[in-house]
Amino acid sequence: MIDWTAIRTGWIARRNRVFASPRFQHWAARLPLIRRIARSRADGAFDLLAGFAYSQVLRAFVEGGLFDILEDGPIGAAEVAARMEMSEDGALTLLRAGRALMLSEEAGPDRWMLGEQGAVFAANAGVQAMVRHHRLLYADLEDPIALLRRDRREPTALSRFWTYAGALHGAGERGAQTSEYSKLMAASQHFVADEVLASVSFGKVTRLLDVGGGHGAFLKAVGSAWPHLQLGLFDLPEVVETGGAVLAGALGAERVTTHPGNFFKDSIPEGYDMVSLVRILHDHDDAPAQGLLDNIRASLAPGARLLIAEPMARISGTEPMGEAFFGLYLWAMGSGRPRSPAEIIAMLKKAGFSSARSIATAQPVNASVVIARA
Ligand SMILES: C[S@@+](CC[C@H](N)C(=O)[O-])C[C@H]1O[C@@H](n2cnc3c(N)ncnc32)[C@H](O)[C@@H]1O
Fold first, then answer.
1. What CATH number is associated with residue 200?
2. Long-range CB contacts for residues 349-355, cutoff 8 Å, separation at least 24
3. Do residues 215 and 333 share a domain?
4. Does any ligand 1 atom lie closer than 6 A to the CB of residue 283?
5. Across all residues in the chain, what is the average pLDDT?
6. Which of the four pLDDT bands, split at 50, 70 and 90, describes residue 25?
7. Where are the transmembrane segments (predicted)?
8. Are residues 116 and 200 in the same domain?
9. pLDDT recorded at residue 1
């Protein structure tokens, strides 16, 4: 039998020797056709090296209020400096760094405005909240080798923030501190909901239960787009209390049922023809994640469906978001890992779903979708 792994490892080793050779790099940089590939590889390598500096530029824009300042633009560097309480040189350094990243733009001499990317960030409070939140991630990643060696045995800034993740690993007590993460999730939820609404029809669904639905932002979006839906919200008691009130206020109490509970220990309420799990599965390690899918499967009548939406691993063209960003984020959080659609589908089959398939979304950085039928 042909040993494909041996052939592939041999080929990769040879290719890597060639790529590492200064003679090859010198030659590739000069051949017209190869030059473009070589340059994009070199730029990619530099971005890997410099990514932390880029994200700190973004952070300075958000934490320093520079997006808001530039929204009032065009504006001169001296005024930016005064409003940001820094020297003009400091402000110019940041404005120029932002210009290179399309966060700011110099429309004319000393006339600073939002850049193309800047306009997107400025308009989006949810993304800015996420940038602020990443302060915790960067603190945990200060020494990545040490973080990996601790093997999730000690509390981290992120495990303290996600109190349920900390509690799962004995790193903290699960208390009532759920409102901070619930607000962060609600602020960024529309990205996920938009992907789901653009790729899934709820026309044939009558009753939709969102498990781990937080403050109800996903149900609010889906319930507004599909007014015939009856909605159920399942989450920890302190979370559904707020979520239920938000949903009743937005869509009417008669459309909403709240289910306080623990999705690992309590049964999932029956009678729903679709259950959604939005940004939940990746939060949990394989055994509890499988337990959650088993629990949901047990609640579903034949033909009822489970919709899973979250950023997933190994999506073509978006690979770094999955296993590089979320891989490290969830490691630092102390629980979970990003999974590929194929891995999720295998878990769904194991839980007894009769079929499962992945559905393409336009922006997999926001979410990919898998749907399974009981
Ligand atoms: C990452 S947030 C996602 C919230 C929401 N689905 C969204 O995408 O915005 C995870 C949610 O799961 C809930 N959760 C965590 N552990 C839980 C458990 N054991 N039982 C019920 N809900 C839980 C949290 O309270 C939180 O609302």
1. 3.40.50.150
2. 350/290, 350/293, 351/290, 351/293, 351/294, 351/296, 351/297, 352/294, 352/297, 353/293, 353/297, 353/306, 354/302
3. yes
4. yes
5. 94
6. confident
7. none
8. no
9. 86
Domain-embedded: residue 172 = no
Q: If we measure between CA atoms, which residue out of 259, 257, 244, 368 comes closest to residue 318?
A: 368
Atom 11 (ligand 1) nearest CA: 212
Query: Is 19 within the bounds of a domain?
Result: no
CATH number at residue 73: 1.10.10.10
Confidence (pLDDT) at 165: 79
Are 192 and 301 in the same domain?
yes
* Rounded Cα gap, residues 106 and 101, in angstroms: 12
Ligand 1, closest atom to CA 185? Answer: 9
Angle subtended at Cα 102 by Cα 97 and Cα 105, rounded to the nearest 5 degrees: 80
Domain span at residue 253?
179-373
Q: Is 189 in the pocket of ligand 1 (CB under 6 A)?
A: yes
Whether 282 sits among the annotated catalytic residues: the reply is yes
pLDDT per residue as tens digits for the range 118-173: 999 999 999 999 999 999 999 999 999 999 999 999 999 999 999 887 665 544 44
C-beta 311 within 6 A of ligand 1? no
